Amino acid sequence: MFTSIQRRSVIVTGGSKGIGRGIARVFAAAGANVLITARDADGLASAADALAGLAGSVSTLAVDVTDPLDCAAMVRTAVERYGGLDVLCANAGIFPSRRLEDLTASDVDEVLGINLKGTIFSVQAAVEALTASGRGRIVLTSSITGPMTGYPGWSHYGASKAAQLGFMRTAAMELAKRKITVNAVLPGNIKTEGLDGMGQQYLDGMAESVPLGRLGEVADIGNAALFFASDEAAYITGQSLVVDGGQVLPESAAALAEI
């Protein structure tokens, strides 16, 4: 039985939709007080409505994680509303597709700005509040793409996700003396609203690459983040957890056909 995280204070960046909203739902259902942030105020309002009525409270704040001042305001808001900060889920990210030969400097700057710089700035802003908590937890949303696999059109995205793990390892060392752990969840193919409209045939094709035979749910990522945030994970830091239904295991399509 895991120790309850009821009434603990949690920030989820990029929490208005997709995996971020799924993470927020898992924490709020467990009784935590969750501040979800994103750039889109309308999306935040929709997420707040969708997450109403859970055991914990959910509030919102429009934040651009590429701006260190916005990140500082985000942490101040969590402290003011909830009396402190115990968990930062640095989840904000984008994944625009662009082939290598077509990448512009602006494309690269945008992806690295949100996915990598946004992670670093969010963590920097949260350090003092997480230290004051005495049980600070940082959970990064990385990906199997970049650290473990590649996919055409996502060279800049993959680079940003691999870079997050490089940041994580050193941050975990530097923050250990503050009793803050830093870990990452690496999602595989997860069913989010971003896949709406793609059609069942497309979804079935994605699921065929997964040994467990299905796409992951956002709650699967939320549950992994919740574990890293738990008291029981206090001795785990600088580690990454792949949540992909076994997607990275087969060495070829032929291997899957043998299952």
Question: What is shown here, in short?
Answer:
By secondary structure, the chain is an alpha/beta fold. It has helices at residues 18-29, 41-50, 68-82, 105-133, 155-175, 200-207, 218-229, 253-257; strands at residues 9-13, 33-38, 58-62, 87-90, 137-141, 181-187, 240-243.
Strand order of the largest sheet: 3-2-1-4-5-6-7
N/C terminus separation: 34 Å
Query: How would you sum up the major sheet?
Result: 7 strands, parallel
- Global outline: globular
**According to CATH, what is the topology?**
Rossmann fold
- How many structural units, i.e. domains? 1
Task: Look at the helices and sheets and give the structural class.
Answer: alpha/beta
Taking pLDDT < 50 over at least 5 consecutive residues as the criterion, the unreliable ranges are none
Order of H and E elements: EHEHEHEHEHEHHEH
Fourth CATH level, the homologous superfamily = NAD(P)-binding Rossmann-like Domain
Number of separate helices: 8
As a whole number of angstroms, the C-alpha radius of gyration is 18 Å
Question: What's the mean pLDDT score?
Answer: 95
